[in-house]
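Hi X.,

You mentioned you wanted examples for the new student's onboarding notes, showing what a folding record looks like when two proteins sit in one file. Here is a clean example. The first protein comes first, with its sequence line followed by its C-alpha cells.
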Amino acid sequence: MLDVRRLVLLRDLAAHGTVTAVAELHGVTPSAVSQQLRLLEEETRAELLERSGRSVYLTAAGHRLAEDTEQVLAALERARARLRAGSGEPVGPLHLACFPSALASLAVPLGAALEGTHRGLELHITEAEPEAAARLLLQRRVDVALVYRYTNLAAPRPAGIETRLLQTDPLVAVLRDDHPAADPAGAPVDLRELADTDWITAPPRTACGDAVLQACRSAGFTPRVRHTCTDFSAMVALAAGGGHTALIPRLATHGLPPNLTARPVTDRGLARTIETAVRQGTAHQPAVAACLAAAALLPEASGPPRS
C-alpha cells in the first residue's frame, strides 16, 4: 500500500517545482523530502522522478500519480467529513487564516457570527497573506482561509485547495482633495489622469504591487513610484502627507483622513476577489461547513468613497 504522506510530497513537488520548496512547505529538510520520494519510487516500482544535477523533474508516470493523488486526498477528506457528520453540532477548535486588510472587516464579524450560532466552536485566527495561507491549509495548520486574487493577474489556485467567491473588492484611487483628479462630484478617475503624479505602491513581486503596475501599463504609462510599502494604512498616511497617489482596495479605505478622498476608477473590472479557501474534500466537515455558511451571510465589507 502506498504511503499517503509520500504521495502528498509528490503532489506538492508537482505544484511547487523544487524539493527545497516542498521542504519549506512541510518544515523538513530537502534531504528528508528526497529520501521519502525515493522510497515512494520503491513502493510504486516506477520511475517517478528524473534527476539532472540538483534539479528534479517529474516523469510522465510521476505526473499521473500526482494527479491521482488529488483524488485520493479528496476522498480521504470526504471520509473524515462523513465520520464527523454524525456528531451533530460543530464543536472544538476551528483555525482560520486571514489576510491583514480583512481582519477587522471580515474575520472579526465572522467570529462573532460563529460565536452566536455555534457556541461549541472555538475560533482561532492567524494573520496570513494568501500564499502563506495556502501553505497553512496544506500543512493542516488551519481549516479555512480568507484569501484574495487580483483580477488583472493570472494567479493559479494552489493544488489541493478549493475556493468560493465571497465578494469583489474594487480598487480605488486615493487622492488628496486638492488633486486635479479629485472630482468633488465623485466621478470615476481614468488612470491616465494620474500618469504625471508620484505614486505610492506595494513593492515589486507582491500581488498588489504587480496589480497596480499592470493596471498603469494597461493605461499607457509606468507609474513614477515615490514610496513603496505593503501596509495600506501607511500608504494612506503617506498620501495624506505628501499628496501622492495610491491605488488600493476599497476595503482598505475605512477612516480616511479628512484631506483625502477615494475615487472609483473607470475600469470597473479592476478589483480583487475575496474568497474562502479550504482543502479539497473538507467543505462538508461540520466546523468547516459552519464557517463557510457564516462567511457567505456576512454583509459585504466595503469602504464607500467619501464625497
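Then the second protein repeats the pattern, sequence line and then C-alpha cells:
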Amino acid sequence: MRFLFCTFAFFAAALTPAFAQTPSRIERLTSEDGAMFEAHIFAPEPNAAAPGGAVVLLHGGGWVVGDASWVYPRAEAFARQGALAVAVDYRLANQRSLTPAQSSADARSVFRWLRANAAALNINPTMIAAYGVSAGGQLSVSAAQSDDALARPNAIVLVSPALDLERDGWFAQLMGGPEAARPLSPLSNMRAGLPPTLILQGDVDTETPLRGAQAFCDAMRGFGDRCVLKIYRGYGHLFTPAGINDRETPAPDPAISEAAGAFASAFLRREGYFR
C-alpha cells in the first residue's frame, strides 16, 4: 500500500463536494496518550425508541492521508436508516512523525467513548459496529483484537481492507520495521471471539489483494466465528473496474459501490443496528 495515497486524496476531494452530508455535531475526543482528535456525529432522526445501534466509520488513505469527510456519504446513509454514525478524524502517520499505532489508539478510544456515553447518545453499548475502508479496515480489526473489551466493536464491515500487513513494506516503513508492524497486522493476530464480520472485496484488487481477505475469513471460520466474504468479480481496490490502475488512479464504479453499500446495510440490519 504505497502508491495510492496522493491520487486517492485528489479523487476523494473531487467526489466529496457532490454530497451535501454534514454531521450533527463534532466531538473532540481524548486518545490513549492524551492527544485530541475528532469524531463527527451523524445522529438518526429523533424518536422515543429504545436505544439503537451505532456505527464507527474509519476512512482509508494508507494511514497518511484522508479525513472524516471521506466517509460522510456512508455515515449519512447509516444515520438515515436509524443508527448513530460516527465518522472518525483519526490522527495520520504523516503528522508529527506519528505512526499507525496512534491511528489505532484513536480508533479504540472512539469505542470506549461511545460506551461511556451510551445513555446520553441513546445507543446500546453492546451494539457498536465498525465500518473500515482500506487502511480503516486495519484500524477496525485491530480494535476488535484489543485486550480491552470496551475498545472492541460488536460487528465489523470491511471494504477492500488492509489485513495482511506483517509483510507489507509500506506498513513496515510507517511502523519502523517488520517487528513493529506485527502487533497491528490483523492476520498476524487472529484469535477466537472476533465479532460477526462482513468483507466487501474485489477479486483483482492490487492494493489490498483478495488473498488477505480470504485468509482472514478462513481463520475466523476456523475459530468458529462468523465471516462473510462478498467478492465482486472483475473489480479492484474500492471497486475500481479491472483494467484501470487501482493503486494510482482508483475509479470506483458507482453502481458497484452502491450495491456494496446496500449489502453492508443489509448485514447491519440483520444484526439489529438500525432502529
